[in-house]
Amino acid sequence: MKFLLVFDFDHTIIDENSDTWIVKCAPEKKLPNGLRNSYRPGHWTEYMGRVFVYLGDNGVEEEEMKRTMTTIPFTAGMVDLLGFIGENKELFDCIIVSDSNTVFIDWILKAADLHNVFDEVFTNPAAFSSTGYLTVQNFHAHHCAKCPKNLCKRKVLKEFLDKQSERGVSYTQIVYIGDGGNDLCPVMFLKKDDIAMPRQGYTLEKKISRLAQDFSPVECSVLVWSSATEIMSYLKVLIKE
């Protein structure tokens, strides 16, 4: 029996938002107001597509983007935590479910030599076009009214668990580590033996505590963290039990 660790990426594994960090590559490190104001709620991926066109139009090339992205700091204690998980892969399956994109996550994990810790990464597919522009697509289509158009993390988690179950793999416990509003949908899917680990002071923690105040708490246990060292302490207890 194994444990499944599910990580968000932005503000969880890394201490920033990869999509807003890329703006450091733009002229004067900012976007024109018209572009910045073109975002519509639930349509972030389309907005990022326009940002990448703007960067391409301004001659920002792949190498410069990569250099910039690999300077993003990891969250406190995260590199140690991922190292610990990597040393105990016989006990942990580990996936990322993120609203970032394949190119950014790949660059960042490979630069830190952490890509082998993760069994699968579920995020918006991105690639450089023949003209050298970065392009991004929605991860999938779904019918969840609570989630942004491009990604329902509950659907991803459920499909992953179904696929694992067909292979004969089931998990003693799912540990979900995240920070954002779009992490609430998969957390609501967790069962009472599972655990949600929202980052302290971020949207997910606030949404979970609001549900508890409304007497409709999530079914799983909740353990708040501010440093990944606290997550590691929990996992060490888990594997001793």
TrEMBL record:
SUPFAM superfamilies: HAD-like
Domain of life: Eukaryota
Binding site for substrate: D19, D99
GO MF annotation terms: metal ion binding; phosphatase activity
Taxonomic lineage: Eukaryota, Metazoa, Chordata, Craniata, Vertebrata
Species of origin: Pygoscelis papua (Gentoo penguin)
Annotated Mg(2+) binding sites: D8, D10, D179
Alphabetically ordered keywords of this record: Hydrolase, Magnesium, Metal-binding
Protein name per its UniProtKB record: PHOP2 phosphatase
The gene coding this protein: Phospho2
Pfam families: Put_Phosphatase
Family designation: Belongs to the HAD-like hydrolase superfamily. PHOSPHO family.
Cofactor(s) essential for the protein: Mg(2+)
InterPro entries with a match to the protein in the record: HAD-like_sf (IPR036412), HAD_hydro_PyrdxlP_Pase-like (IPR006384), HAD_sf (IPR023214), Pase_PHOSPHO-typ (IPR016965)
Catalytic residue list: D8, D10
